[in-house]
Description:
The chain is of the alpha+beta class. Helices cover 33% and strands 23% of the residues. It has helices at residues 57-61, 74-79, 129-137, 139-145, 160-164, 174-212, 231-234, 258-262, 271-274, 343-349, 353-362, 373-377, 387-425; strands at 7-10, 13-16, 20-23, 28-35, 52-55, 71-72, 84-85, 90-93, 101-103, 111-113, 117-122, 146-147, 156-157, 167-170, 227-230, 235-239, 248-249, 253-256, 268-270, 280-281, 299-302, 304-305, 314-318, 325-327, 331-336, 369-370, 380-383. Keywords: Coiled coil, DNA-binding, Endonuclease, Hydrolase, Nuclease, Restriction system. This is Restriction endonuclease S subunit.
Amino acid sequence: MEIKTGYKQTEIGVIPENWKIKPLKELCVPNGLVRGPFGGSLKKEYFVDSGIKVYEQKNAIEKNAVIGSYFVDNSKFSELKRFEVFEKDFIVSCSGTIGRIFQIPHGAPKGIINQALLKIKTNEEVVNEKYFLLYFEWEKFQERIIDNTQGGAMKNLVGMSIFKNTSIALPSTLSEQNAIAEALSGADNLITSLEKLIAKKKDIKQGAMQLLLTGKKRLPGFSGEWEIKTIGDLFSISGGLSASRDKLSDDGYCYLHYGDIHGSNKSYIDVGEEYPKIPKLQVNIKSVTPKSLLNDGDVVFVDASEDDEGASKHIVIKNQNNIPYISGLHTIVLKSKDNSLVNLYKQYCFKTNAVKKQFKFFAVGTKVTGISKTNISNVQLLLPPTKGEQSLIAQALSDMDNEIEELESKLSKYRLIKQGMMQELLTGKKRLV
């Protein structure tokens, strides 16, 4: 590949001739890169109810210095003072959700890092702190600090000797570093403001759900007592056709695996629209019981979850063209007995706190919680007396969902734009000075 005039080839790609490649350790002050203490240094018996904060992974992951409930006394703090964090230090998560970085802000609680973190104190005469943070968060850099050698879903941070020597491309002047950081920070600010707006809209919708779906707030023009009915009153309940994930492919009949319900952030599946990406199972469709074939308006719950919160996870089926769709492993199918619930209302009525509380009550198990068809049939719903009120409630909530979806689509575009900017600016393809 021909290299453009004014650029050079390095071990991490083509960069401007006057840029430098520096290992992480050379961007830090002396002893500025420290891995958290061994686990034995911070056993449970050393924690106290209040005192000096112990920073955890979630502080880095959620970019929040305040959350957390682990503390040590002054004696233990003095023993582990090497691991103290200060304003402008960076903390990095090292296991599980790895590589997340957070800069300790002004006024953050005095504290030390635990064994799942490392701390970095950069040398401000060598690297602009904003440039460093943005470069560290860049996906191209993240790929180089994640250890994939063991395979599987669980990733780890590379060993400290490798980590310290991981290279960063660095503009030779702090002014150019600052210009890049400011440009990318502008994109970051747009993304952050949109994230906050989406969070606010979701909170408003959550509050509206708890009011509208319980009758605490009525829409204009409606009156009359709400009714209590069980899921068993409203639906016939059956199981799905068991097939493991490795039997699924791109050929055959659409198949709903319980993992796809857990993994979805939507309240419905539109079979027609999503057909190409729905997993398929090669099977004689005549051998599948009609109870396991999903029709428009059916509701499908999972019967197994890794936590109580997931016990009520479900999806509503949109299938107006009656495309064969098989409900699968670890699913419970609800089919309306009398169509007394509006289909759109089904997307919301199982999400009230009262309903979730019942699912948690009925869920059994330790590592994996499960719920039976019998127990689901006993879950109670508080329902409006007319389908007209159901429709208007559901439409109001759906309008909120559509607004949130539009904002999330815009957020995805902003993130893509930022990634493109990072690729241009952090490699020097585009120069700002």
